UniProtKB/TrEMBL annotation, chain A:
It is an enzyme of class 3 (hydrolase). Its cofactor is Mg(2+). This is Ras-related protein Rab-14. SMART domains: RAB, RAN, RAS, RHO. GO terms for biological process: defense response to bacterium; endocytic recycling; Golgi to endosome transport; phagosome maturation; protein transport. NCBIfam families: small_GTP. PROSITE patterns: RAB, RAS, RHO. One of its GO terms (cellular component) is early endosome membrane. It comes from Phaedon cochleariae. It is found in: Cytoplasmic vesicle; Early endosome membrane; Golgi apparatus, trans-Golgi network membrane; Recycling endosome. The keyword Acetylation applies.
From TrEMBL, chain B:
Required for normal Golgi function. Component of the conserved oligomeric Golgi complex which is composed of eight different subunits and is required for normal Golgi morphology and localization. This is Conserved oligomeric Golgi complex subunit 6. Residues 49-160 form the Conserved oligomeric complex COG6 N-terminal domain. One of its GO terms (biological process) is intra-Golgi vesicle-mediated transport. PANTHER family: COMPONENT OF OLIGOMERIC GOLGI COMPLEX 6, CONSERVED OLIGOMERIC GOLGI COMPLEX SUBUNIT 6. Keywords: Golgi apparatus, Membrane, Protein transport, Transport. Belongs to the COG6 family. It comes from Phaedon cochleariae. It is found in: Golgi apparatus membrane. It is a peripheral membrane protein. The keyword Transport applies.
């Protein structure tokens, strides 16, 4: 998995959010290790994973924060929204409650990330068709209404897992190309590797002010 | 005398012969000329005559003739008589000679006979002589043949020995060489057409060879275990070289050797463990069983040494063997010989592992096992030894990681609340100390990269979870600072080691997230303290009309914002959050501060522009803001 540290041109930061038990850690594991973890313990705080992918011939390192769904870690996990270029919002198609909570997750995300953050909705556990509790159409409509990308996936079988992560990256990359995403902004969640030595300085006053405002 | 008379007579007649006058004259002259005094015969005759013709008278003269004749007759008669005697003598001689002749003839005949007989004898004897010569040469050939194609009784006794005892000496090898040589040379005999002989000899030699090798085999089998005994080494190694030609016997010897050495070395090991050296020096290894590190070290050192010795002895045993795969044989043999060592070692190591130990102790045992496993595997890497060492190593590794995990879990059972100064709790610093120690040791061990990764995971994952748990119970600012302090502590610990890039990357990213959070809190607090919230809100609004007319945007109010900013330039820490001051990393603190100030400066810059905008209706902008944003920036950052 690990490649040389400078083998890529961009770093994209992702967060994976959603209720506990929806399969966030499994999705990350499936994406980074191509394996399914049958009994995965609850995530405490955050977990971290990386993988280098390629988009339009560019090597991109994904730094992915897998957050804890448990309510008590909300304060800890909120720290990680800020710098995210992509947010994978996950619900469990066999548990309606996890779907119902999406709007609250979405609000959090919108509040804590910047407008260009790509939000991707994943209906996980689509392998459990028999226990389906949320129809594809319903979720699809919700995604459309909120301008989210959407896919049903399974961390168990690996269906659509790769796609969700890659599509998000493509969208982010497109934003960069279109100039919609300010690379210099700390909150863009993107680092341009060769030119930018670090991200610990705010070079956009505008951005900084907005950030301040959000609090 | 007769001749004189004859001559005189002749001369007389000559004188008478008239016809032959001149002949006569010649004769006369001759006679006259003749010098009687020089004619010895005449002188003698005259001397003789003078003896009996004493008187020169006619008578005498007339009688002279008769006298001479008479005298002559006498003399003749005398002569005759004398001759008769001579004749008689001659006759006798003749007779004798005749007799002798007969004898000689007889002798000659006899000689002739014996000559014939001798010749026969000579023939026979020369024939015999020839036969003898032939026989002698045949004898020589046979001797040579026997000498060359047969063993001497001494030779035979070398390997047959006396009835009771077979005495092993170097001679047996010479005899074996000889037997082989004879066997080989039989080919020459064959070439000369001596098939039967050659085959017989060959068969005989084969029998000898078998018999000698059999003796050699028995002896070697009895003595091979003592190959390191310098008195025997030479004989044993040579014997082994000979036995190579008989793979089955060779195998038997090696098998016997293996069995003997296996029980010997096992016994030695048990003795070293329980009894120690002669008169307890060195002390028995088990005496230090209470210190498992020393105990395991001693055992492994002993084993390693013993196994190397065994290899050495095996190589010695087969030193002269060039027809077998010695390396392979040594390897196989060692595998068998060392089998007996496995059980005692296994039992003891397992016993150690059954008693709970500290993770570092277990780790050092893991490393000992790995090290000696590697050493030993260079010598024996098959069979039970390999299996045992591999099993012990993985058992020990599992035990170590299990223990470490347990130890970490024990330290983290209850979630302590972070102290007021938001520094990492004791459990955290403790675990980091453990981690540092373990990594330092691991850093020097075999397969360190994997170990270090595993150890780090083993400690870091629960540790980070615990820190998250602790942080989750704090208000956001405290949470960010506590996380930053913990991460900083962890980062500085891991930074010291190799192979931590991924962890460090994660920690750095995590730290960035928390710095963002803290910065945001710090900015909020500054904005509140400087009371610029309303100003900023107003600035953001569109269509607000001249700012100077809006409440809150009075020059005095703006002036007090600037004054507070100026105060910050001289007392930069004054308005820092109490929590920001609790950051252990001064770098973190600087970053937070700088970013917060940048936000203030950005606002100031906006207000500055607005104040100087005539449409906002401020009378003397330079009196309100007598400092350019750049000036402030210089002073603040
Ligand atoms: N059948 C099926 N089970 C899944 C799938 N993904 C996850 N699971 C199971 O769902 C359970 C929870 O998965 P996690 O990945 O731990 O869930 P999470 O979202 O990370 O939970 P928190 O960490 O507590 O927020 C696990 O037991 C998984 O085995 C899936 O695609 N199909
Ligand atoms: Mg999880």
């Amino acid at each position: 998995m690990s490649a040389g540290p400078y083998n890529y041109s961009y770093i994209f930061k992702y967060i994976i959010i959603g209720d506990m038990g929806v399969g966030k850690s499994c999705l990350l594991h499936q994406f980074t290790e191509k394996k399914f973890m049958a009994d995965c313990p609850h995530t405490i705080g955050v977990e971290f994973g990386t993988r280098i992918i390629e988009v339009s011939g560019q090597k991109i390192k994904l730094q992915i924060w897998d957050t804890a769904g448990q309510e008590r870690f909300r304060a800890v996990t909120r720290s990680y929204y800020r710098g995210a270029a992509g947010a994978l919002m996950v619900y469990d198609i066999t548990r309606r409650s996890t779907y119902n909570h999406l709007s609250s997750w979405l609000t959090d995300t919108r509040n804590l990330t910047n407008p260009s953050t790509v939000i991707f909705l994943i209906g996980n556990k689509c392998d459990l068709e028999g226990q389906r509790d949320v129809t594809y159409e319903e979720a699809s409509k919700f995604a459309e209404e909120n301008g989210l990308m959407f896919v049903e996936a399974s961390a168990k079988t690996g269906d659509n897992v790769e796609e969700a992560f890659l599509e998000t990256a493509k969208k982010i990359y497109q934003s960069i190309q279109d100039g919609r995403l300010d690379l210099n902004a700390a909150e863009s969640g993107v680092q341009h590797k060769p030119s930018q030595p670090g991200r610990n300085n705010l070079s956009s006053d505008q951005q900084a002010s907005k950030d301040n405002c959000a609090c | 005398m007769e001749s004189v008379t004859q001559k005189m007579d002749k001369e007389y007649r000559n004188t008478e012969d008239v016809q032959t006058d001149h002949i006569l004259s010649k004769r006369l002259s001759k006679i006259i000329q003749t010098r009687i005094e020089t004619d010895q015969e005449a002188l003698d005759a005259l001397k003789q005559l003078s003896t009996f013709y004493t008187e020169n008278s006619l008578q005498a003269r007339r009688n002279l003739r008769s006298q001479i004749e008479k005298r002559s007759l006498d003399i003749n008669q005398q002569f005759l008589a004398s001759f008769s005697e001579v004749k008689e003598s001659f006759d006798i001689v003749y007779k004798d000679v005749a007799e002798m002749n007969d004898s000689i003839k007889d002798m000659t005949k006899r000689l002739h006979n014996s000559k014939i007989q001798t010749k026969q004898l000579l023939n026979i004897s020369s024939q015999l002589q020839q036969e003898r010569d032939h026989n002698i040469s045949e004898q020589k050939i046979l001797d040579a043949l026997i000498g060359r194609f047969q063993l001497s009784p001494e030779d035979i006794s070398v390997f047959q020995g006396s009835k009771k005892e077979f005495l092993m000496t170097n001679d047996i090898f010479a005899v074996l060489d000889k037997v082989q040589g004879i066997h080989d040379e039989c080919k020459i005999l064959m070439q000369y057409g001596l098939q039967t002989l050659a085959l017989d000899i060959m068969e005989q030699m084969t029998l000898y060879q078998e018999s000698a090798l059999e003796k050699l085999y028995r002896w070697t089998q009895d003595h091979c275990r003592n190959v390191e005994n310098s008195d025997l080494t030479d004989l044993i190694t040579q014997a082994m070289a000979r036995l190579q030609d008989r793979p089955v016997l060779f195998r038997y010897v090696i098998d016997e050797y293996n069995v003997c050495r296996r029980s010997k070395v096992t016994e030695d090991f048990i003795n070293a463990l329980t009894r120690g050296g002669p008169s307890g020096n060195p002390a028995p290894i088990e005496m230090r069983a209470h210190d498992s590190q020393i105990y395991v070290t001693d055992m492994l050192v002993w084993l390693n040494k013993a196994i190397v010795m065994e290899k050495h002895n095996l190589q010695l045993l087969m030193k002269h063997c060039d027809k077998v795969d010695v390396d392979n044989m040594v390897r196989e043999a060692l595998t068998v010989i060392c089998e007996g060592l496995c059980q005692p070692l296994k039992m003891r190591v397992e016993k150690i592992l059954n008693v709970p130990s500290q993770a570092p102790v277990l780790y050092s045992i893991v490393n000992l096992l790995r090290y000696y496993r590697k050493c030993i595997s260079k010598v024996v890497n098959e069979g039970l030894v390999r299996e045992t060492l591999a099993n012990l190593q993985s058992l020990c590794e599992n035990n170590f990681f299990g223990t470490l995990q347990q130890q970490v879990a024990n330290k983290l059972v209850k979630v302590e609340a972070p102290p007021r100064d938001l520094s990492p709790t004791l459990a955290v610093t403790n675990l980091l100390a453990v981690l540092r120690d373990m990594l330092s040791t691991a850093n020097m061990s075999e397969g360190r990269e994997e170990d270090m990764a595993k150890i780090t995971t083993c400690i870091m994952d629960p540790l980070l979870r615990a820190v998250n748990e602790q942080a989750a119970r704090l208000p956001p600012t405290d949470m960010a600072v506590y996380m930053l302090n913990c991460i900083y502590e962890i980062y500085t610990c891991l930074e010291l080691f190799e192979f931590m890039e991924e962890r460090l990357e994660r920690l750095a990213a995590q730290s960035d997230a928390q710095i963002d959070t803290l910065t945001s809190e710090q900015v909020s607090s500054l904005v509140a303290n400087l009371n610029v919230g309303p100003i900023y809100t107003i600035l953001q609004e569109r269509n607000h009309g001249p700012l100077s007319e809006l409440p809150g945007m009075e020059p005095s109010n703006l002036r007090s914002f600037l004054e507070k900013m100026c105060h910050l330039t001289t007392h930069p820490d004054a308005l820092l959050l109490q929590q920001t001051n609790l950051l252990s990393s001064s770098k973190h603190k600087r970053v937070v501060q700088k970013r917060a100030f940048e936000v203030l400066l950005a606002i100031y810059r906006q207000v500055h522009v607005a104040v100087h905008d005539p449409s906002n209706g401020y009378d003397s902008p330079q009196l309100i803001f007598d400092k350019a944003p750049e000036e402030l920036e210089k002073a603040l950052l």
